[in-house]
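Page 37, continued from 36.
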């Protein structure tokens, strides 16, 4: 294989990759300079102009809240009378009482 000639498409691609990596390293060094980690994390989560998981909002659901079994994870129509945790069946209730119930 021939080495990439100066000015060829392969040479330009490698050059742009190296330039992008160098710019990224410079940005990281500029960001880390003199800022504590908690401030950097806060700015990363809440400081961006683009919407992300932490800044997006949704309207309240029109449907009622769903509850899940604390033992198996299925939908849970029943609650423990002692501690208030949810369960879905008699079998999960027995497991809950034996191992997970917080109010003995």
């Amino acid at each position: 294989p021939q080495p990439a000639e100066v000015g060829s498409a392969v040479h330009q691609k490698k050059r742009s990759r190296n330039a992008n990596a160098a710019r990224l390293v410079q940005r990281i060094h500029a960001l880390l300079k003199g800022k504590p980690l908690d401030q950097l994390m806060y700015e990363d989560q809440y400081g961006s102009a683009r919407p992300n998981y932490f800044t997006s909002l949704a309207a309240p659901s029109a449907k009622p809240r769903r509850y899940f079994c604390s033992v198996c994870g299925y939908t849970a129509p029943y609650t423990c009378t002692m501690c208030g945790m949810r369960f879905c069946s008699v079998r999960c209730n027995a497991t809950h009482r034996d191992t997970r119930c917080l109010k003995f």
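The helical segments are 9-32, 37-46, 90-100. Flag for discussion at group meeting. The two ends are 75 Å apart (CA to CA).
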